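User: Round two. Same drill as before: sequence, then structure, for each protein.

Assistant: Same drill it is. First protein:
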Amino acid sequence: MSEQLSEKNLQLMIVDAPVGIIIIDGTGKIIWCNVRGKALLLPFFGSDDFKDKNLYPILDLIGPDIKT
């Protein structure tokens, strides 16, 4: 029971973390991001629907050495 509570607490902390957490696949396609991640990406994509969006062009703009 306490293991389930700990996992649930971890999930809540990740979703509401004050930093952007973005999960991408090997091609840069956005799989998931938390609330702060969505807020950070909103200016680049114009909406919070990131389905089939690619993070690599954004990384090229803001920090080309990040993805290497």
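Second protein:
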Amino acid sequence: MATKQSRGNISLTMLTKRYDGSISLTMLTTMSDGSISLNMLTKRYDGSISLTMLTRKSDDSISVTMLTRMSDSSISLAMLTKRSDGSISLTMPIRRSGDSISLAMLTKRSDGTISVTMLTMRSDDSISVTMLTRMYDSSVSLTMLTKRSDSSISLTMPIRRSDDSISLTMLTRLSDGSISLIRL
């Protein structure tokens, strides 16, 4: 079913039922400014449900979001974004064993810098963030930030520069409030 909306927007909606019992509802919308969005909701024969949203804006930035509830009630989410300046980011939550949950993010900036970040939250209220970055000048840094369940915090940052020199910074705040800083 195609419909023309106000201000030059056009939508196309399609409902599909496959022979295996899967059902999909797809909506394609073009906007008067050149933006396009594609949304698809699918219920598969095994009971899993997925929602996919793809958007291309008039500035050529693109975003894709995929949300899936599997038949065992687990949920996965992935988000991919390409901006008009050429930078790209990918974000994916990951459920690990036990009650810990992680969020992984991959980012490529327009200057060539690439970073991978992993955020992990555990059931004991501890949190860790690890970020590996390769800068446009080929220097590499690793940042590790940890907040433990006893409220102590540690930050470790080794850096290898493009001239192969290495530096290390370690900052720790213990649960009693004392702070130590080591820089090599």
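The chain has a mean pLDDT of 83.

User: Perfect.
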